Every structure is written in C-alpha cells, then in structure tokens.
C-alpha cells in the first residue's frame, strides 16, 4: 500500500491505484481519477458512483448485472459511461475496492 496525491489531497491507495480508505473520497478526487482514465464525469456518472458507494457501504457484492438492474443505467449504458472496464473503472473512480469479479 502507498499514497498518491489526487486533487491536491494525499490519498491512501493499493498497488493497483484503488483507494483503501473510501472516506477520503469526494467529487474532486473522483474527477481527478476519471481524468487519469480519460473519462469526463457527468451527472449520470455521479449517480452511478453514488449508487456503488452506497451498495459498498451496505456490504453488497457489486456486479455489472446488479448495476444494470439499479434503475440508474442499463448494462449498455454502464459500458458507455465507463468504456473498457465498466465495473473496474467505476469502482476505482467511486473510491471503493476493485470488485472480486474484475480482473
């Protein structure tokens, strides 16, 4: 584990760059993480990120299918918002650990 300066804040991260302390997350951190991946966040992105953070807090196992059934965005929409790794990237930007289902 280590630390990384993101949005002018020192953030605790693991070897893959995922935040290890979700309480350090805020919208500025999310925007900076998204920019590193090449994603510009919209209100719809933040709806998904808030959903992921809430479900993580509740201890739910996150899957693409579960997000697709959330009513926020369907699976195709999730892929459009977070191309190249929808759950992997959305979790990283949401400041939560990488789901076990992601490689």
Automatic annotation (TrEMBL):
Pfam families: DsrC. One of its GO terms (biological process) is tRNA wobble position uridine thiolation. Keywords: Cytoplasm. GO terms for molecular function: sulfur carrier activity. The keyword ATP-binding does not apply. GO terms for cellular component: cytoplasm. It comes from the Bacteria. The keyword Cytoplasm applies. The active site is at 102 (cysteine persulfide intermediate). Its main location: cytoplasm. It is found in: Cytoplasm. Gene3D superfamilies: 3.30.1420.10, DsrC-like protein, C-terminal domain. Belongs to the DsrC/TusE family. This is TusE/DsrC/DsvC family sulfur relay protein. It comes from Plebeiibacterium sediminum.
């Amino acid at each position: 584990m280590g630390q990384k300066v993101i949005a002018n804040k020192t953030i605790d991260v693991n070897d893959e760059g995922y935040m290890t302390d979700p309480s350090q997350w805020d919208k500025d951190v999310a925007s900076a993480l998204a920019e590193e991946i090449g994603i510009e966040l919209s209100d719809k992105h933040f709806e998904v990120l808030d959903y992921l953070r809430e479900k993580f807090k509740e201890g739910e196992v996150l899957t693409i299918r579960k997000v697709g059934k959330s009513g926020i965005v369907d699976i195709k929409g999730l892929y459009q918002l977070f191309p190249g790794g929808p759950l992997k990237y959305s979790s990283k930007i949401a400041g939560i650990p990488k789901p076990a289902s992601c490689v």
